[in-house]
Write a structure and sequence with these properties.
Blueprint lengths: L5 E2 H4 L1 E6 L13 H20 L2 E8 L12 E11 L3 E12 L4 E15 L11 E2 L3 H31 L17 H6 L1
Parallel strand pairs: 1-7
Antiparallel strand pairs: 2-4, 3-6, 4-5, 5-6
The structure holds coenzyme A.
Family: Belongs to the acyl coenzyme A hydrolase family.
GO cellular component, one term: cytosol
GO molecular function: long-chain fatty acyl-CoA hydrolase activity
Length: 189
């Protein structure tokens, strides 16, 4: 039986949390890991709503924190399903940090979580197709397809390069880099 498509709006989720001192490092800035944990939570909520199943995080793309987040700011994570495969979903998450007193809003990052729906036996299970309702829905779906294609090409390219790195013929590439080899290591190469 084929599953009925669900619109992006069905699972769109926003999580807002106050940044408290316990989330900060010694410099008073919020730990990147705190934000990652919140992103993981909202990705779960959004993907589980679409799938109607328990979902697990498989990979994360595009985690680049552009600006620091401070204690006292309100962080909002806006999540929506951008793409679905057979059992996987890509959830796009835009993170903003708001200083309510000053009235500033910073866009700290946009990241993409790939989630997989699991059945009761912990096996990947089919998710409903995505009903695209707006030009933005279409753009995000197409972008996710491109990201998936580029990631597969990158993995293949890197795997090939890694095999070549196992041989010491690339050692010259370290010249000019900020690293040193121990005398012991030089003898053994
Ligand atoms: C992700 C997982 C289910 C894949 O299992 P598998 O037996 O390889 O299953 P499949 O090959 O059928 O892949 C299932 C889906 O995951 C996708 N997938 C697998 N690895 C992926 C990766 N590294 N990045 C993106 N998607 C991936 C596949 O493309 C497939 O998607 P599709 O059905 O939409 O085409 C399995 O590796 C797993 O359970 N990992 C642990 C996840 C987890 O517990 N996360 C919590 C953090 S500890």
């Amino acid at each position: 039986m084929s599953l009925q498509a669900k619109p992006v709006s069905h699972s769109r989720t926003t999580l807002t949390e106050l940044m408290i001192p316990a989330y900060a490092n010694f410099g008073g800035k919020i730990h990147g890991g705190t934000l990652l944990s919140l992103m993981d939570k909202v990705a779960y909520a959004c993907s589980a709503k679409h799938a109607g199943q328990y979902c697990v995080t498989v990979s994360v793309d595009g985690v680049n924190f552009r600006q620091p987040v401070e204690v006292g700011e309100l962080v909002s994570l806006m999540a929506s399903v951008n793409y679905v495969g057979r059992t996987s979903l890509v959830v796009g998450i835009k993170v903003i940090a708001e200083n309510v007193k000053v009235g500033t809003v910073k866009h700290t990052n946009t990241s993409y979580f790939t989630m997989v729906a699991k059945d009761d036996l912990d096996r990947p299970t089919e998710v409903p197709p995505l009903l695209l309702e707006t030009p933005d829905d279409v753009r995000r779906f197409l972008e996710a397809m491109k990201r998936k294609e580029l990631r597969a090409a990158y993995s293949e390219h890197f795997d090939n390069a890694r095999l070549r790195m196992l041989h010491n013929e690339n050692i010259d590439q370290l010249t000019g880099e900020r690293c040193q080899l121990t005398d012991e290591l030089k003898k053994n190469l």
